[in-house]
Amino acid sequence: MPASTVLMFFVTTGYLLFWFFGTSEQVNLQRALFHIRTGLVIFTFSLILAPILHSLLATVSTDSIYAMAGLFFLVNWACTDYTTQLADYAYEPGSNTTAFSSSLLAALCLASRLPTPYHTFVLIAAGTVLFALWPSLVQVIRVRAGKAGQLCLTLFAFLFSNTFLWPIVYHEAPMEYKVLISIANLTLIVLINFIGPWVLVRMQRIKRNIHGPWDEAVVQQS
């Protein structure tokens, strides 16, 4: 199945879920047409500019490309506005501009090492969907579906990442690397999704506010 078909399937499914879980203000026809028009413009320009973007970083070494991509992803992780996941969050345009821009730059770096402009277009489009549309859908599902929605999102992310990781790594890597990657992947999943939250909850129980009749510090000028 072509990658673009898979991408369009996920975009359509995500938009239907957003329409189902969203409030009446979020899913009115006027806003829906605006988002569809914006998406078509972005994907059209990405397709037209794909040959240029594909060769834009051709002269840069592969090691530098991977280093820059990792740096941009770190910037995305550090600058993402995580308050957008709260139920009472009021949307502010541009709240994630730095994070979104850095993620697209990382996708552009990685896309420059793909074989054809078509693959470049698909990767950039996938990055747009993942870093621009996915957070909005996650926020809506978390608010409207509660803990059950959060659990479904976690399971979906686990299955999705491992499904696409399998043919890339497990079919081409030597056996020792397969075992190492499998152990590292499962360890990270358990640590991030279970051990880390459990430790935070446990630490809240032993947190104490210490009060006492201490004198306030006074700065003495010499």
Automatic annotation (TrEMBL):
GO cellular component terms attached to this protein's record: glycosylphosphatidylinositol-N-acetylglucosaminyltransferase (GPI-GnT) complex
GO terms under biological process: GPI anchor biosynthetic process
UniProt keyword list: GPI-anchor biosynthesis, Membrane, Transmembrane, Transmembrane helix
Predominant subcellular localization, coarse grouping: membrane
One Pfam family of this chain: GPI2
Transmembrane portions of the chain: 6-22, 34-53, 120-141, 148-168, 180-201
Membrane topology reported for the UniProt record: Multi-pass membrane protein
Localisation per UniProt entry: Membrane
Pathway linked to the protein: Glycolipid biosynthesis; glycosylphosphatidylinositol-anchor biosynthesis
InterPro entries noted in UniProt: Plno_GlcNAc_GPI2 (IPR009450)
Stated family: Belongs to the PIGC family.
UniProt protein name: Phosphatidylinositol glycan class C
